[in-house]
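dumping this here before i forget
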Amino acid sequence: MRGRKLKRIRIAAAALLFSAVLAASGCGVSKEARQDRSAGIVKMNNGEFSGAVESFRAAYNKTGKLSAGFRKDVLKYLSEAEFRGGDYQGAADTYDELIRIDGGKPEYWFFRAAAEAGLGNADEARKNFASGREKGNADTPGAEIALSAIASVLEDKGDYDSLSALASDLLGSGWTNPEVYNIQGIVAADQEDDDGAAEAFQKAQEAVKDNTPAQVVAEVRRNQGALAEKQGDFEGALAIFREVLKNYGGDENLKKEIIFLKTRVGDTTEDDFSGIVEEETAESGKEPAESTSAAESTSAAESTSAAKGTSAAESTSAAKGVSASAKAESSGGN
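structure:
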């Protein structure tokens, strides 16, 4: 059950959750620093991540040591802009500074784990994740983002044994968040245990909370659709993917899935693909096509829907391999 891309993490809705929204004031904070910070937030919300990074760095450099709260706040925004702009190394370095000055809070370790995973460093990411687990739990900001990122790296490497062991370890220690169940379902599907996969994905959907990252619930819902497709339930799969498209937009993979499934069921309904975004690589020099501000906590509307949600505009199908096999068996394809 392959196909989860780290690229989706970079542009995912609600990718980060911990940046504080502070009043731009305080001892040692100049007017220019406050203006740079505000400009950075606007740029980040508009998807101009490189410009946001420049503004946040300018704000940080214009503050004195006495304005510790403001400087920490700016660093959080800076790490977010770097992360979402695909500068995972820059983000990791900024998390290092936050860990140094702010007591090694578990969310910093989790987000740093996600950044290391973005760099493809599975071992370092798992070490950071373990550091976050020492003081954090399944509901700590960044925990599911990090877990999803690490799972993506392990899948890319084809290391399903480590993926299975990770899920078992977490479930055994009481981590019952959606991403853990999602991993469990992916492993089951890889082992051709469709019933086990369906049960795990259902548990993942039922475990969704208001603060569950949208990219996680997105992946779960799309996995359910891919599994339905594999099992020959083309109408059910089409309904799920259309739900994703309607509520959250989509990517090219989702568009292809919908077009293919329409041919299987003879559906001639015209779908609105105007929300489709083209994912960009960090090397392309282009800004991600879509983003949301992670400076504020995710609202229930962002992270859940009537179907307990998706942010499929930013995520490739985690079950692309299953979908592909379904197409092959049906002598179709896209």
